[in-house]
Amino acid sequence: MESTEQPNAPKSSLIRIGQRLQLDRPLLFALAAKSWQAISGPITMALVISVFSVKERGVYYGLVNIIGIQAIFELGLLNVLIGQAGNEAARVTKGASTASDESELAARRMSLLIKGSGRWFAVASLLFVLAGWCFGWFSLTPVETKLNWWLPLAVVIPLAALSIALAPALAILEGAGFRDSIYRFRLIQIVTGSVVVWVALWMGLKLWTLVLATSVQVVWASYVVFVQHADFFRRYRKLPRPEDGFSWTRDVVPMQWRVALISVAHYLASQLFVLVILGRDAADAAEDAGRLGPTLTITTAIQMLALTWVQTKFSLVSAHHGAGERELAGAMWRQTAIVSTTLLCVALGALLGLIAILPVVERGWEMNFLYTWQVAVLSVGLVANHVLALQSFYVMARRANPFWFPAVVGLLATAAAVWVFGRMYSTSGLVVAYAVATALVALPLHTWAYMRFRREK
Question: Which of 102, 216, 290, 403 could lock 54 by a disulfide, CB 3.0 to 4.6 Å apart?
Answer without folding.
Answer: 290
